What does this fold into?
Amino acid sequence: MGSSIATLEKNHPNKNQLNAFIAAKVAEAEGVSVELETTSKYISTYNIKEAIIGKALPDFFPYADKFVNHLEATGKIGTHRRAKAVIAKLRKFVGGKPILFDQITVSFLKDYENHLKAILKNRQNTVHANFRLMRTIMNNAVTEDLLPVQFNAFNKYKLKAEQTQRAYLTEAELTKLETLQLKEGSVMNHHRNIYVFAAYAGGLRISDILQLRWKNFDGEKINIMIHKTQTPLSIKLPERALQIISAYKIGTCSGNDFIFPLLKVSPDEENPKAIFNAISTETRGSI
It folds into this structure.
């Protein structure tokens, strides 16, 4: 850098203060330039400018869209659809305009929470789920050095969720359901069997039960990969659950065939979206 510094004209208001400010900024720029040039040989005027005036933070939405699309690409179809809806809701709140990462402040989050509750009538746990996704995206941006940690509003904004109470069937109620007379082979009968099987098999999710194949059953245990968490699980089945499965063992079954014949999809189907759609279709009519 040269030693010549542009100064304001004599009759300019606050000439001395402004000239002193300009001189200080030039000295700061020269200091940054010297430090960068002495610590790295791969330096450019862009690097120097960025170090002096700072790097502009990116728009939240393109990064969020990339995050959401990755969920679909990795087969997390249900999570992808929920995340897509969350981002669409936020985009509508800001009128479809861009919003930089550092514009998502604690004040912004409070305003958005109030909007979700007062205008959209979302319950507390829905708000919590929306903000949990936003927090994950912000944390990822910090990890990828797109967002300085001090600009992550979720470091100060605490998420709140409500405790929910789950109702459980009594042993008498479960027995009554088991002995209910239903038409053999009917959808209602299949649904009842799946529900009772879940109760005896440790409360497996309906999505995992619908995808159970004969190759997952060794005669005593169910060995599967949990769909939601992608973690292996082995369950030794009690007698009642074994009785339910044995009722479906008719003729010769290939290892890939579903144990409970409800999904309207080929057992050889591997497309996660097709499987998810088949599960969604089937569970809409569950009892």
Q: What stands out?
A: The chain has eleven helices and two strands. The longest strand covers residues 221-225. The radius of gyration is 30 Å.
